[in-house]
């Protein structure tokens, strides 16, 4: 209540001082109570929609909780026809709880005001055309189905309209269909003939149109991945998480490759689920990434590198998370090729705790590849006592640092939890995103807050002289 009263006070003070800004105040295109009926699905709207007063669309069922609005020809497999109507004025009194009440509000025939005068909108009646197009859609949808209606309500301060999602429950929709069929060929529904008890429900709308949506990660370092083509080689403890973070950051295309198979032990810290056990890691990760975003293009390769690994055309950044010397040499060869090429990066963690992170970045135009940059950084780190925390990243593995996770396992692995590896991978992804905006070559050293030492971040810029041909 204190926050509400404080905002109300500021609102009144601004109005009294002539500084009222309706776009930022307690002001909305639709008045009344919150328009959300429990149990109704969310309507997802991403397309801006044609600039027409009345436009037919289709609602596609994604889940029992979600319907997606699409325009154009009816999609294969069906979809419920829904009219999308642009209103002439705002709805200061809301939409009501019955179809008749909604039509009255659309025509400005709402209930009496506090002074006893009827509230009327300065627009011509809209209900006949809206009711007719609603009936047209209803009779084209199967019986015993709900009938939806999307209203684009103009905002008093301008800009894109507010979207309101209405639904006639199946019995009410069938009653409307019956009325249409009884009337015959002359499809012009009389508003006065609507049963006053036909209920209307209100659906939450996930309005994701570009004109009204601002990404929550806008301006953050990881936003450097927005619209980029990313390749991730190695889908393990770091690579599987970095691939997901790149997708959530808005990458346009992500290519993942790994020759391994998901086993139950990997679920402790890698980005997989029980349902993935037995599946190729690249394929399982690709399915997860595609489930995160409808717009990203995901390619999966079951080899150590993609079949077309030598062709980096269109790739913006290549992340090597394999932690193998051979892959480092491959990336060094890419760096030596003349012409446009992507940002090249190698990532790793320590074997003892999984709380340290290493990122070697080779920006376009740098002659030395990530492996060479990593080698040079190692010499600097090992010679600096202040960076003793990171010495283990370049030193031989000590006894006890690695573990054999299952009996008979021939390849030891490193210690580390999902929480730590996801945190390390997230930090490295954000740091790499900065290099996609402002390219620079060098090595990042990072440590989680509970790592046994400091500093928690250090960047070693790459200043080696150009390679001799």
Shape, please? elongated
Q: Main β-sheet, in a few words?
A: 8 strands, mixed
Provide the β-strand percentage band. 15-25%
Low-confidence stretches: 112-122, 464-469
How many helical elements?
A: 9
Rg value? 30 Å
Helical fraction equals 25-40%
SSE run = HEEEEHHEEHEEEHEHEEHEEHEEHEE
Distance between the termini: 72 Å
Mean pLDDT: 87
Secondary structural class: alpha/beta
Biggest sheet, strands in spatial order?
7-6-5-4-2-3-1-8
Please name the defining characteristics of this protein.
469 residues, alpha/beta, eight-stranded mixed beta sheet, 9 helices, 18 strands, 20% strand, elongated
Structural overview:
- The model is unreliable at 112-122 and 464-469 (pLDDT under 50).
- The strands form three sheets. Strands 7-6-5-4-2-3-1-8 form an eight-stranded mixed sheet. Strands 11-10-9-12-13-14-17-18 form an eight-stranded mixed sheet, with helices on both faces. It has a two-stranded antiparallel sheet with strand order 15-16.
- It has 469 residues and is of the alpha/beta class.
- 25% of the residues lie in helices and 20% in strands.
- The protein is built from nine helices and 18 strands.
- It has helices at residues 2-16, 99-106, 127-140, 170-183, 239-248, 281-292, 325-336, 370-382, 418-437, and strands spanning 42-45, 54-63, 66-70, 80-86, 147-153, 162-168, 201-203, 205-207, 229-233, 253-257, 297-301, 317-320, 343-349, 356-362, 402-403, 413-414, 442-447, 457-461.
- α7 links the parallel β12 (317-320) and β13.
- The radius of gyration is 30 Å and the shape is elongated.
């Amino acid at each position: 209540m204190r926050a509400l009263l404080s905002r109300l006070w500021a609102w009144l003070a601004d109005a009294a001082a002539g500084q009222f800004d309706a776009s930022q105040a307690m002001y909305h295109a639709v008045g009344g109570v919150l328009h959300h009926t429990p149990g109704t699905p969310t309507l997802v709207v991403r397309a801006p929609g044609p600039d027409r007063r009345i436009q037919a669309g289709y609602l596609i069922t994604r889940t029992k909780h979600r319907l997606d609005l699409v325009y154009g020809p009816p999609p294969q497999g069906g979809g419920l026809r829904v009219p999308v109507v642009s209103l002439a004025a705002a709805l200061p009194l809301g939409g009501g709880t019955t179809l008749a009440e909604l039509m009255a509000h659309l025509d400005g025939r709402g209930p009496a005001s506090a002074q006893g005068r009827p509230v009327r909108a300065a627009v011509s009646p809209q209900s006949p055309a809206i009711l007719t197009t609603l009936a047209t859609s209803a009779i084209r949808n199967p019986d015993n189905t709900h009938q939806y209606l999307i209203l684009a309500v103009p905002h008093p301060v301008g800009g894109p309209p507010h979207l309101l999602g209405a639904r006639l429950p199946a019995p009410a929709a069938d009653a409307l269909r019956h009325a249409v069929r009884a009337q015959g060929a002359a499809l012009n529904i009389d508003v006065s003939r609507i049963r006053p008890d036909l209920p209307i429900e209100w659906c939450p709308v996930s309005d994701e149109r570009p004109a009204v949506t601002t990404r929550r990660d806008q301006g953050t370092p990881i936003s450097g991945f927005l619209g980029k083509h990313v390749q991730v080689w190695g889908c393990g403890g770091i690579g599987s998480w970095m691939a997901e973070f790149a997708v959530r950051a808005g990458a346009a295309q992500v290519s993942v490759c790994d020759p391994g198979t998901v086993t139950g032990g990997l679920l402790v810290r890698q980005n997989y689920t029980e349902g993935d056990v037995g599946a190729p890691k690249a394929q399982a990760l690709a399915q997860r990434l595609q489930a995160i975003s409808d717009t990203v293009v995901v390619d999966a390769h079951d080899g150590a590198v993609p079949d077309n690994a030598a062709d980096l055309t269109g790739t913006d950044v290549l992340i090597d998370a394999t932690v193998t010397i051979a892959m480092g040499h491959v990336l060094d060869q890419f760096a030596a090729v003349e012409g446009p090429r992507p940002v090249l990066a190698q990532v790793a963690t320590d074997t003892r705790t999984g709380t340290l992170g290493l990122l070697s970045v080779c920006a376009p135009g740098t002659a030395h590849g990530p492996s060479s940059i990593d080698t040079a950084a190692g010499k600097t780190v090992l010679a600096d006592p202040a960076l003793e925390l990171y010495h283990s990243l370049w030193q031989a593995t000590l006894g006890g640092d690695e573990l054999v996770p299952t009996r008979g396992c021939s390849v030891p692995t490193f210690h580390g939890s999902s929480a730590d590896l996801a945190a390390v991978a997230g930090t490295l992804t954000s740091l790499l995103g900065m290099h996609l905006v402002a390219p620079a070559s060098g090595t990042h050293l990072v440590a989680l807050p509970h790592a046994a030492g400091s500093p928690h971040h250090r960047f070693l810029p790459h200043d080696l002289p150009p390679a001799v041909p």
